[in-house]
Structures are given as C-alpha cells and as structure tokens.
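Field notebook, page 264. I keep forgetting to write these up properly, so this time I am using the form the group agreed on. The chain and the ligand, zinc ion, are recorded exactly as supplied. Prediction of the bound pose follows.
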Amino acid sequence: MWSYEHNGFSVHQIPALRDNFIYLIATDEVLACVDPAEAAPVVAACRQLGRKLTHILNTHHHNDHTGGNLELKARYACMVAGAAHDALRIPGIDLHLSQGIDLRIGDLALQVLDIPGHTTGHIAFVCGEGDDTALFCGDTIFGAGCGRLFEGTPAQMWHSLEKLMRLPDSTRFYCAHEYTLNNLEFCLARISQSDAVKAYSTWCKDRLDKGIPSIPGTLGREKQCNPMLLPADEAFRINYAKLHGIGEDAVSVYTHIREARNHW
Ligand code: ZN
Ligand code: FE
C-alpha cells in the first residue's frame, strides 16, 4: 500500500488483481473505497489502518472495478455510490450519481463528472481544489493512454478527455490500472519521440524497477506526453493529420491514434 497526502484527505493505493489499483480516500470521518476490484486487499488495508469502510465509489460498472462491492457492503454496511446511468449494472448501489450532483459525505466533498466513452455510464470523482486537486478517473485517462471504447464513440471519449484536461495541470490523477510503460512504448514507436515522452519513459522504467507504481502522475505531464491527449495541441494535430492524410480536427486525430493503439 502506498499513501499520498492532500489538504484535508489522504489517498491510499492498493494493488489488486493483475494490474489494477484500488484507492482509499481517508478523512477524519470518511474512508471511501474507489473501485474495489476485489474485497480481500481492501479488508487487509482497512485492518492496517484500523478503520472501517464507510463508502464505496464506483467509476463504472466493469467487474474489475465493482467485484468487491457486495462482499465489502455486507462486511461494513457501507454506502455504495455509482453512476445513475448504470444503476442496474452496479452491484449494491445506494446513491445514484451524475454530473451536477456533488457529493458531500461527512467531511469529504466530491465533485462528480460524467465522462462517457470507455462505458456509457463512466464517471470521475474530483477531490480538493486548485493546486491540490485529486482526480479518480477509473479507466478514462491512464498513464500515457486512455481506456478502450467498449460502449461509447470516439467523439464522446474525446469530449470526456477534454473535460478532464480543464482541471489544473498540477492535478494528481489516480487511474485504475498500471499500463503506463506499455502505453509509452506505443507512443515512442508510433506517435511521438519528444524529449518529454523520453523523459517520462525513463522515469517510468526507473519507478517500476524499484517496485513503485507510475501512478499517480500529474495531468500536466499527460497533456505533454499522453498520445490520447496530444490532439488538443494544434501544431501536433496539423502535423499528424498531414502525415496520415486525415482531417485536422481533434476528433479525427484522436480516433486515428486510438485505432492505432487498438492494433498495436
Ligand atoms: Zn473498465
Ligand atoms: Fe478496468
């Protein structure tokens, strides 16, 4: 378990399954679990902290994000919060969320964003503000990548990514998988060999060699290096469109890069 301090809350990161991360958001009053892939490592982490789970927060319905819901709910009698849109697909859901319904649980305030694309009912949780923002984005932004489009369209996903890019550059993003190194290899091979991407790759290898996750990173670095976010940059977009003979608009460029990643 790795822990990160923020203003008024801390985040504990728990590895699960093959390459998942489960998070605990802890304040004096609240211990909320984001995307419990499975129950056992969450129970172990709660024991280690000497605390009981008060809430489960699901970013989307996939089993590697909700697999622990029912067992944890039975054990701790905690509240389960997830997207209203996916109420029928989220086990044990009590609180139905969507953008605009901001959540205050005890001394923890959470902003909810609708970010469809990976699934149609995908949401994100934003905690803190300004220079001390934490983003829980599930399978939407990964280190140097983004989630596959299982249910949404490329345009939907692009608009969700744009929404997340409006958060401050210093935002620490807590995504649900350790995919960064593989994503960076794709980026270097097919999309960009900028100094920033090379530096990210060196940093990432060094972290993983030491047994430390590459997540959380900052949104600022993703905007510079993440091939799925690069279409926001006009110079990159025009260049890439020319190279591949496609439209210069961000959705066309994003769609092309997402396709290239699918087949890499
Ligand atoms: Zn997923
Ligand atoms: Fe996942």
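OBSERVATIONS:
- The pocket of zinc ion (ligand 1) is lined by residues 60, 62, 65, 118, 139 (CB under 6 Å).
- The two ends are 32 Å apart (CA to CA).
FOLLOW-UP: compare against the apo run.
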